Amino acid sequence: MNRSAIVTGSGRNIGRAIALALVGQGVSVVVNGHSDRAAVDATVKDIADAGGRAIGVMADVSKHDEVAAMVKACAAAFGSVDIVVSNVGVRRMQPFLDIGLDDWDAVLATNLNPAFYLARNAIPHMQARKWGRLVFISGFDAFWGQVTQRAHSITAKAGLHGLAKALAREFGPDGITANTLAPGAIDTVRDWSQYKHQPKDKIAAEIPLGRFGRMDEVAAACAFLASEGGGFTSGQVIHVNGGHYMY
Q: What is the mean pLDDT of the segment spanning 237-247?
């Protein structure tokens, strides 16, 4: 049976790697971005050039109406919505007492709410086929705090795992799994000014494998969770961190 997926934040970095990995399994993909249309178009072109199927949908996933429209676009283009990968996040550094109400709401709106919006709109399509995969990209800071001055981000990432567990329990009878993927130190394009407290060489030295992870390694774990073979893994978190932290 043909499968289709929505991968948010998939114009670059981990999201792009996930989209390409799913296409490699024969999945048709909605490539999503918010502000960088060129990156989304480039990913769609790469997929088409490799013989896969993809469409690009620009949507601000912190807004429910735009997520709902994206889910409808996926169903219209590919006939179903079988796999959802929520892969968006901001990592602000702010001392807790400096976090204003607007700051708190903005981070949760970006890091947590999209997973709810995606699940709420996609699950009815999955129920219709008695098959579905929900994967929420979180992070290891949701499990040990990682650093100070990120209370809003850490709270949102921990919430993703709680949501996955709730959905796994409620919708398991419909053949739907829900899991969290927690990348560790992954070599991505990022704003390193937000990581000045964590020198890159020092982090690599703390990892038993002695290096940062690759984006394709995160994508491979996600592809497993989204596959037929991942059908008995639900309500779990898969840590992809090179043994940096062991739970």
A: 91
146, pLDDT greater than 80: no
Q: Cβ–Cβ contacts within 10 Å for residue 49, how many?
A: 8
**Mean pLDDT, all residues of the chain:** 93
Strand pairing category for 83-86 and 54-58? unpaired
d(CA 85, CA 223): 10
Query: Is 45 or 149 the better-scoring residue by pLDDT?
Result: 45
Q: How far apart are the first and last CA of the chain?
A: 36
Q: Is 42 exposed, middle or buried (0-12, 13-18, 19+ CB in 10 A)?
A: middle
Evaluated on CA atoms 63, 124, 220, 166, the torsion sign reads positive
Strand, helix or coil for residue 65: helix
DSSP 95-147: -GGG--HHHHHHHHHHHTHHHHHHHHHHHHHHHHHT-EEEEEE--THHHH--S
Name which of 18, 13, 96, 97 is nearest 54 in CA terms: 18
pLDDT given for residue 205 in this prediction: 87
Tokens of 191: 């704003």
Cβ–Cβ under 8 Å, residues 2 and 11:
no
Task: Identify the H or E element spanning 69.
Answer: helix 64-78
Buried b / exposed e over 98-108, threshold 16 CB at 10 Å, is ebeeeeeeebb
Whether the predicted model's global pTM rises above the 0.85 cut: yes
